[in-house]
C-alpha cells in the first residue's frame, strides 16, 4: 500500500484573534486525489486547532511517501 502525503505552506487566521503561519508542513492524506479544502481540514485537525476563521494553503505538493 502506498502512503500519500501533502507538503505545503499555510496561513491560518483565528476568529478570536491571532494567526499562524507554517512552511513545509506535511500531512498524511487518505488518497492522492485529496482536494485543497480536504488538505486544509486535515491540517487543522492534525494540530487540534479550534476557532479557525480562514486557512490559506500555498505551494501544495501531493506525493507518495512511506510513513
Question: What does this protein structure show overall?
Answer:
The protein is of the alpha+beta class and 67 residues long. It has one domain (4-64). 18% of the residues lie in helices and 52% in strands. The protein is built from 1 helix and 3 strands; from the N terminus they run E-E-H-E. It has one helix spanning 36-47, and strands at 4-14, 19-29, 52-64. It has a 3-stranded antiparallel beta sheet. It starts with a strand and ends with a strand. The mean pLDDT is 95.
List descriptors.
1 helix, 18% helix, 67 residues, alpha+beta, 52% strand, three-stranded antiparallel beta sheet
Write the layout of secondary structure elements.
Layout: E1 4-14, E2 19-29, H1 36-47, E3 52-64
Antiparallel strand pairs: 1-2, 1-3
TL;DR?
By secondary structure, this protein is of the alpha+beta class.
The quaternary state of the protein chains shown equals single chain
Percentage of residues in helical conformation: 10-25%
Strand content: over 45%
Poorly predicted sequence stretches spanning 5 or more consecutive residues? none
Terminal CA distance reads 11 Å
Instruction: Report the strand count.
Output: 3
Number of domains: 1
Mean pLDDT: 95
